[in-house]
Amino acid sequence: MMLQQAGSVQLLCLTANSGVPLFTRGASKQLPFSIIGSLNGVHMFGAGQGVVLAGCETDRGGRMVWRVFQDSVMLIAVSSGGGAGEEDLHLRRLLENVWNCMVLVLGQDELASLRNVERLKRDLRSCYRLIDQLLEGGQGQEGIMGDLTHCADCLLPPNATLLQEGLDGFTQAADSDPTVAHRLLRFQLLPGVDVCVLCGPSPTLHRAESELVGCFWSPLLEALRGSLAVGERCLPGSVTLRPDVLALLLINRESRRSVSCVKAIITNPNHPPSNHPLPSKARCWELLRLFYTFTTTRYFPLEETPALTLGEKAQRGDSLREDFALGFSHQPLQCYLVTEECKCFSLQTAQHQLYLLTPLSVPTFALSSVATQTLSAITLATGF
Known about the structure:
alpha+beta, Beta-Lactamase, FUZ/MON1/HPS1_longin_3, Fuzzy, FUZ/MON1/HPS1_longin_1
């Protein structure tokens, strides 16, 4: 089996009540205004009949997904192709991430009120760079999986508890509030280590930089250097991974955190070239994302934000799984997939989900043992 990326995506943003276009991003060839109006009109017609139109598929394999936020802004994603369940998940994640980006930059109250549409159009331009990165779907963002998993990307340094305490104290002193998206402050603590805080109009930038940063982070410089030593591996030296693990994604389902890494591919010049060359590092990151999407649209539950209303669940289109999975009387605990490039294996427990990539040379019957040993090695050494 071949795992492939989704097709090109175009994003449309309109006012929910009147259908006034606010912006379009994505594919170089924009949709005609008549088609944009039709996409808005069919959603409004369904709403008038008490029907929530979440998504549909064209006869040529294209897909469209709608989502209304705060009864004020409608986002529509149009894709040129891709697998049904996989593409739906990709598009719905995209709409949620774009909305969160808009809230981060402009604030939820500004978007919900729509007091001045022309001014809002101008203000939304400041979101374009972030939105364009989201449309790239993780390309060039190695190690970043949170846009897809909706879990916080983490690394596991040796002194994680000390760093967490410092971060908690720093955010509390800065009056950090995720519901008040006025300012995102970023400070460089060391080359390669930054701290960000989302806060309101206070404290001043000068006070945050001159007082709070030094107060909370100066005592932790050695711990910060230790986190730098972890590097792209994201795991401390106390964790020894098996040599047949190419890449992994581990999700803590309780804390909604994740850690992921791809091992450096080292070719031994003394060994003859293999009939099945290992995928490159960039391709491993891509395959890891694709396998996560494959598994969560068929077997494993998505790790979603709690306390969703029924209307939100309907708009999200929770039935992303293929039809054959809907009749299962049990919850699958393991899944494997053999592709032309590698073998993939995933397992889930009450607390974790683990996704692995291994070379094709690993026997299929041994994949479960490899995954179980990897999960134990990480959790026992780090408590993750």
